[in-house]
Design brief:
Elements lengths: L14 E2 L8 E17 L2 H13 L4 H24 L4 E12 L3 E15 L2
Parallel strand pairs: 1-3
Antiparallel strand pairs: 2-4, 3-4
């Protein structure tokens, strides 16, 4: 089975969540917006495969894999930006994906960098 999942590994020192808060923790300090950006071009093999699939139907696995890799790269860049700014968490993380001049996909991971502390 191919892994088309993504997201954070358990060993991260910066927690990333899509929620506005984390149960059992309080926001000690808001650092601000952080983001990670990547632009990936489509290679010819994926474009030919996508063209064939669009006629016959089915998942575009090559493009799915590329998008997962792009999302993970954007997320890692966002996490690094949060880490450098002294955050230990990113709240309300989201992705934005758009076309980049018809040659590829632009993926942006963004959220609010904060310092969390355990509630007493």
């Amino acid at each position: 089975m191919e892994d088309f999942g993504g997201g954070q590994t358990a060993q991260q020192d910066v927690l990333v969540v899509t929620t506005n808060d984390v149960p059992g923790f309080r926001v000690q300090q808001v650092i601000g917006e952080v983001f990670g950006l990547t632009v990936r071009s489509r290679h010819l093999g994926s474009q030919i495969g996508a063209g064939i699939k669009s006629v016959f139907g089915g998942e575009l696995k090559g493009l799915t894999k590329t998008l997962v890799e792009s999302r993970n790269e954007a997320m890692e860049r966002m996490i690094e930006q949060a880490r450098v700014r002294g955050a230990n968490a990113v709240l309300a993380m989201r992705y934005d994906v758009s076309e980049a001049e018809d040659v590829g996909s632009e993926v942006c991971a963004y959220g609010t960098a904060v310092i969390l502390s355990r509630e007493p």
